[in-house]
Amino acid sequence: RRTRSNVAVQALSLLNDPTFVEAAQAMGARLIEEAQSDEKRIGRLFVLCLGRRPSEQEHQLVSRLYTDQLAIFRKDRELTVAAVGVYHCADVDLTTQAAWVAVSRAIMNLDEFITRE
Known about the structure:
Layout: H1 8-16, H2 18-34, H3 38-50, H4 56-75, H5 77-84, H6 94-107, H7 111-114
Helix pairs in contact: 2-3, 2-6, 4-6, 5-6
């Protein structure tokens, strides 16, 4: 069992770890392929990563995060391409996929994802 920490070093390390980045890129592509709406993608992400459905509050927070990420990626094509990596889904807007990659990275950095209790 690992004790919880409020030190940002672990979070930054995991966010930038190549394994976690690639896993989030693959997850973003998977969400787009498996679910047809943003609402369903949020639910699917929680089930795949955390083994449960999101609460209403979590759903709203993740939905807002997705919207914020879309706005960021719409402004920077180079950042968008880098976020998606080699996992680009055919016939899918890169901005949309990049936003799902960013949301996946956030969920994959939760203590609930990283540790088993």
